[in-house]
Structure formats: structure tokens, C-alpha cells
Design brief:
Distance between the termini: 71 Å
Oligomer: single chain
Structural class: mainly alpha
Helix content: over 70%
Largest sheet: none
Length: 505
Amino acid sequence: MANQASQTGLTSLLIGRIYTGGSRWLVMVAILFFSVSFMIIGFFAFSSTVESSFYTTNLEKAFKEGDGKRVELCLDALMALEPDNPSIRLQFAMFLESQKRFPEAAALLDGLASLDDEYQGFDQAHLIIAKRLLSVAKKGSELKLNDYESKNSELKSKAVKHLVRALAGNPKNIEARADLAETLLETGQINQAIPQAIAVVSLRPELCVRLARILVPTQKQKALDLLALAEAPLRAKLKQNPGNEELVRAVADINVLQTKYLEAMELLSAALAANQSDSLRQDLGSAIAFQMGAILNKPNPDLGEYLALLKKGLDIDPTNPLILQRMEDGLKMGNEAANAINSKLEELLAKGLVPDLVHLLLGTEAHRKSRPDLARVHFELAYQANPKLPNVCNNLAWYLSNESPRDLKRALELSAQAVIMDPSNPQFRETRGQIHVLMGQWKEAIVDLEYALSKLGSMKSIHLGLATSYRQLGDTKLTEIHQGQADKQKDLNLPTVPKIRKTGS
């Protein structure tokens, strides 16, 4: 603009002198000066264009030849020639990202994809920034750095904003949409993740499988619809890359969710034979456990088939909580099954494997056989092996409060520990409520027992605890109501034995 203004000024001066009859030599000097200025300006403009073209051509060649040094040299030169060109800035940032020079890339991206600016910026710039934020969050999770959970939440939230901006700038950026779906899924925003995952099912069908697994308990039909969308592209990807562990596990997940447990076992067994992966081993153990459950759910369970699967499952993944849970279920099949399962449990103990869960199972079986002394020993040993299992805390608390020698103080502490670990579990609340009754803590007992009643329904033990508590507080009407309900119920007087769940270990 300055050069153009200079030219305009010279032209005006020249014309003015001619029309005012100025001296001929002065007019000639002005013409000469104007011509030289125009030539110089034109030369530099042409020279700059030629230089940019030269470096652009060489940049393309350097990329094709994989010459990183020449690529950087050309980009550096183009940045100097065209410092305000955002496309060159983005290209340079992407190159630096590929070289894992992340801080330098971030410096170039600053301004191209700012969240503070209403301008959408470059969708690819937003995508790169989002990927970098997600990478840092993943590293924090793996290393478990101080306060990593809250920091990761903040990083992922910011990444989501960049991905949304990327899609606003370019709705066809399928990679940004896939990353958005995955991040929403990881942050628990399931409803928002579903449409994004469906939109990229051809690229990442695994996301639909992960969503389906979450939705099965509450929205089974929606889960099955997602599986139907994901199955064909997922199997196609697996056919092209049969050794890909992630794809194998995702297809096996589909089989499990469709209750095709034998197909899942076959697929995972073949993959495990080729690659001894812990993840494949755990998935295969779980698939075996599901098949064991299917056998137990038949009207006349085949004990031989069940025990064969039990042996296979324990050989593959002896610490799998689902297999141990199926063992607990199998203890109810009769003496033959119980004896075989007890033998397997003793083998696990002899090998020092999962003593917490094994003692929990042995304690449960001793309780069923009316051996409170042995049950208490096993629950105590389970607690010593792993004090972070809420089931163990709950069951030991029951025995400490109901069997001699009693220790109500410790029982309350253990029961409270179980409730803290799983506050919504009504069985744990009932155990603590009954301990409050034994300790004469009537108001605390009522709070826990009424919660348990609302979730578990009418039970004699709960009504008796509430009747006792209200009687001590002087409420005769509620005492009569709960006592009347208690008289109608049969009380099994058993401790709560929740399903096995490996927690906090």
C-alpha cells in the first residue's frame, strides 16, 4: 500500500508540473524517477513471488523424498517470506507434530485455533491441539501423576471444545468426529457420544461396541442396535488385519453381548495362541465364565461340562473374578460339584492365588453348611488379605456382631467401611443398621434400615430392627406397623453374601 501511494504521489507531481508549465528538465527528472521507482518495486514483487514458488516446489519434492531437513528449511523460508500466511503456519505445525516437536508445534498453532476467538480457525489446527491434550491426559493416567484425575478431566474437557470447533469449521472432518465420540465416551457423556459414534462407525466401529457394553443393563435394544451397526465393518476390518488384538477383542465383545459365548471363546483362544496377551487372557477367562453361567441357568445343568470349563478357565486366568463368581454359583449344584469346587479353591490357596476371593468363597460355603466358626475364620483371612473388598468387610462385620465372641465396635467400623466403598448397596446398609440396633443407636439404625427396606423390600430382620428402634424412641404406631410386618415374614437370619467383585485391590 505504501508503494502504491508513492507511485500515485509521483504521478500527481509530474502531471501538475506539466500543466503548470514547469521547466522541461524538472519534468524529465520526475519521469525518470517515477520509472526507476516502478521498476524497483516491480522487481522486488516479482522476486518475492519467484522465491515463494521456488521454496514451494522444493518443499513438495522434499516431502516426497522424506527429507526432513529440506522440509524444515523450505517451511522456514516460506514463513519468512509470508509471515501472515496461516496455511504455511499450519503446515509447519503439522510437520513439527510429525517430528514429535510438540512445544514448537504448539507455539505455531497459537492463534490459529484459539478458544477465546469466535473465529472457527482451521479445523485441522483444532484437531491437532485436541490430540495433544488427549495424549497428555493419557500419559497422566498411565503414570498416575499427582491429582491426575482432575487434571485429566480438565484436559479432556478442553479437548472436547477444540473438537467441537473443528467440526464447526469442517463437519466432514471424520477424524475429529471420531476423537470427539471417544472422548465423550471416556468422560461418561454417553448420550452425546452415541450419535457421534454412529456417524463414524465405518472408521471406528469399536466405539459402538464399547457403548453397547455400557448400555446393555439399562437400554438393551439400543445396545443391540449399535452392535448391528458395528458388526459388519468390524468383522471386515478384522478380516483385513486378523492379528489386530483390539479388533479381536471388539468382535469377541460383540459375540459375548449377543450371548454367543462359544464363538467368543473360539476367537479369543486362537488369538491367545498366537499372542500371549494379558488382555486376551482376561477376556477369554470372562467368556468362559459367561458360558459356565449359561450352563448353570439350564433346567438340568451338565456338571461334567461345567467342571471342564471351570478347569479350563482356572488354567487360563485363575484370578478372574467372574470365574470365581461362577464357582460360588456352582457350590449350590450339590455335594459332587461343591467337593470339586472346594478342591479347586484349595489348589488356588496352595498356589497363593487370589487368597482374598478364595477365602471369601470358602467362608460363604462354610456359612451355607452351618459352620459359623469356620466361616468367621475365612472371612477374617479374606479381610487380612485384602481389606478393600466391601463384600468381605460386610460379611465379617455380620459375624462379629452376631456370633460369639462379639465385637460390636469393630463390626461397626467394618460395616461403615463397606458402606463407604459402596454407599448405594442396600445389603451393606442393612448390616450396618442392625449393628446400630445392637449398640442402641436408634436414630442411626432407622436411617440405614429404612434405606434397606426401600431397596430390598419387606424382610423380617429389617422390620424387627425398625420395630425395636421405634419402640425405644417412643413411637408406638410405627412400632406396631413394623412388628406386624415382621410377624408375617420368614427370617433366614443369614449374612449378606453379595456377588464377588474385585474392588480396590
